[in-house]
Amino acid sequence: MAFVGHLVGTRIEHAAAASAGEAAALYMEAFLEPYVQELATDNELSPASVHGIDRLHNSTSLSKHIVSVKIWSADARILYSNDKSQLNQTFPHEEVARAMRGEIVTRLTPLGDDENHFEEDFDQPLYETYAPLRQFDTDRVLAVGEFYEQKHEIETLQQEVWAVISAATLAMLLLLFYIVRRGDLIIDRQQVALRKQMQEQEQLHRQNASLQQKITAANHEFARIGELTQRRLGADLHDGPAQLLTLILLRLDELSEWRPQPQPAAELDGDDALETIRGAAKDALRQVRNLSSGLALPELNDLSLTDELILAAHRHQQRTQSQVLLDIADLPEQMPPLHKIALYRFVEESLNNAFRHADGQGQRVSARCSNGLLTVEVCDSGPGFDPDTPINGTRGRSPLGLAGMRYRIESLGGSFKVDSSPGKGTRVSVQFEV
Q: Which GO molecular-function terms appear in the entry (predicted)?
């Protein structure tokens, strides 16, 4: 608003200056030009002309506003002035030169000029107007007239403008105060409501955290029970069907030793049946032992995580006669037993998938721990697959195997990720916070 007031005041001042210049030019044309016509043939004003200008200035009502009059020659010499001490003095003046070219020049009186000592005694701002004085019936400029006009009306108008702007500013400030105050009250009410909602959400968060802890504990217990169940099944298979199959094989061996030699030709078919039974029993025993060894893990409590991963890779190499590259950095020494079992199962299942679906190409196990995050990856350079495409047939990754690994890892609070695309191999990774 101060800028607007200054701008309006400046515009008023400029408009008033232009108006004063036009009025002064008309005054000079009407009243002063008759006294300067003699300058067409002479370089000085006659005493009669000087006396006439003095009488004109003192007798008219313009003397209330016009405090001083000067007439300049073309060479910037003062031919007439209310201050008689300045007569015939020459001052370098750009405004006089411009007026001689036919321009009307209006400005505020500059303080300190040598030619303005008389006007400075009035101690008030004055408009200074320069206008050309022409010869009758021609455009020839004979001299330059200069008026000094008071500025009282402009100051009054500017004061009125500032009063209006001040009143408008005060009204705007009161309106803004009302708006801001009302907004402040609304914000206070909203803050109270938000604090109440935050308290309710904090209570819900505590309840959710408690439920999450219970779910995590239940998942851990489920994983523990599942692992115990697998161990019990492995033990039952080893101690039950495996022992019975072993007994069958022993009895078959006794029967083959008891049979007298040589055997009649008629009994050759019986020997073939005996060998078939023995082969089937051996295959069944081998499968039962494989199942029991897969369900019953080796003792992992005494192994470090690094040794456990090495063991999983070594057992896979022994079973499949394939090569597994290991890239294992510094890993934490202590891990919860369930986490160690989950990682062992993850590496075991992932390597089995790599051997089954990628023919063991580019099998690699990498593990590292950085910034409190344990990452274990199993990669291969096989044909790969699209994880987002439903899996059909025997060559794709087993959906149950991947789902089982994901559930086992996520039930312990870890994250499971499969990164694969056709022709670019497969990378399966898990992460745990340690």
A: kinase activity
pLDDT attached to residue 190: 94
Contact 86, 115 (CB under 8 A): yes
The Cα–Cα gap between 223 and 212 comes to 16
Specify burial of residue 162 (Cβ count, 10 A radius: 0-12, 13-18, 19+).
middle
Instruction: Name the 3-class secondary structure at 304.
Output: coil
| Whole-number Å distance between alpha carbons of 128 and 117 | 14
SS (H, E, C) 308-327: HHHHHHHHHHHHHCCCCEEE
- Estimate to the nearest angstrom the gap between the alpha carbon of 423 and the chain centroid: 38
Neighbours of 10 (CB within 10 A): 11
Could you give phi then psi for residue 134, rounded to 5 degrees? Answer: -105, 160
pLDDT confidence of residue 434: 82
- Cα-Cα-Cα-Cα dihedral of 110, 112, 115, 118, to 10°? 90
Are β-strands 325-328 and 364-370 bridged in parallel, bridged antiparallel, or unpaired? parallel
Q: What is the pLDDT of residues 395-427, one digit of tens each?
A: 445 555 787 788 888 888 889 999 998 888 999
Residue 46, CA distances (Å) to 34, 53, 100 in order: 12, 11, 21
What is the pLDDT, as a whole number, of residue 393? 45
With H, G, I as helix, E, B as strand and everything else as coil, classify residue 181: helix
Phi and psi of 93, rounded to 5°?
-145, 115
CA distance 30 to 24: 10
**pLDDT for position 286:** 67
Is residue 382 within 8 Å of 426, Cβ to Cβ? yes
Which residue positions in the chain have pLDDT lower than 50? Answer: 265-266, 268, 393-396
Contact predicate 310/328, CB 8 Å: yes
Q: pTM higher than 0.85 for the full model?
A: no
Written as one string, the DSSP assignment of 231-289 is: HHHHHHHHHTHHHHHHHHHHHHHHHHHHS-SSPPGGGHHHHHHHHHHHHHHHHHHHHHH
**Nearest 5 degrees, angle CA 331-CA 335-CA 340?**
95
DSSP code for 90? B
Q: Residue 131: beta bridge partners?
A: 145
Report the C-alpha gap between 28 and 16 in whole angstroms: 18
Give the pLDDT confidence score for residue 65 in this predicted structure: 65
Cis amide linkage into residue 262, ω under 30° from 0: yes
